[in-house]
Design brief:
single chain; 122 residues; mainly beta; 2,3-Dihydroxybiphenyl 1,2-Dioxygenase, domain 1; four-stranded mixed sheet; 8 strands; 13% helix; globular
């Protein structure tokens, strides 16, 4: 097994707002399409990375009380984290060192009310 996670979905109440938020924060274009009645905005994952999407549809309810998803913050998560509040989110925990071996993390609330984290080596 290459990764413990194969796919993730980030629930949204307002699909366009959520795609705009993640596009700005991750500095990428989010491509959306409807699949089986669900709006999906795909996040770039690289050729071998774990894929994911922003989704709006029946049964998808944003929450800050579920599992905590750690997004790749690049080499230094400070860049992505610095865009969170300008994009409409809120930083809940600033960049924090976990350890020399593991790196750094930060937690934020997105525009939909999901609690999400970033991880980076520096």
């Amino acid at each position: 097994m290459a990764n413990a996670i194969n796919w993730f979905e980030i629930p949204a109440n307002n699909f366009k707002r959520a795609c705009s938020f993640y596009g700005k924060v991750l500095n990428q274009e989010i491509h959306g399409q409807e699949i089986m009645g669900t709006q999906m905005g795909f996040l770039h994952n690289g050729q071998d990375g774990v894929g994911g999407a922003v989704v709006q549809g029946d049964g998808y309810n944003p929450s800050e009380g579920g599992a905590l998803l750690y997004l790749n913050g690049g080499t230094d998560l400070s860049d992505s984290l610095s865009r969170v509040e300008n994009a409409g989110g809120k930083v809940l925990q600033p960049k924090t060192k976990i350890s020399d071996e593991i790196g750094y993390m930060a937690i934020f609330l997105d525009t939909e009310g999901n609690k999400i984290a970033f991880h980076s080596p520096s």
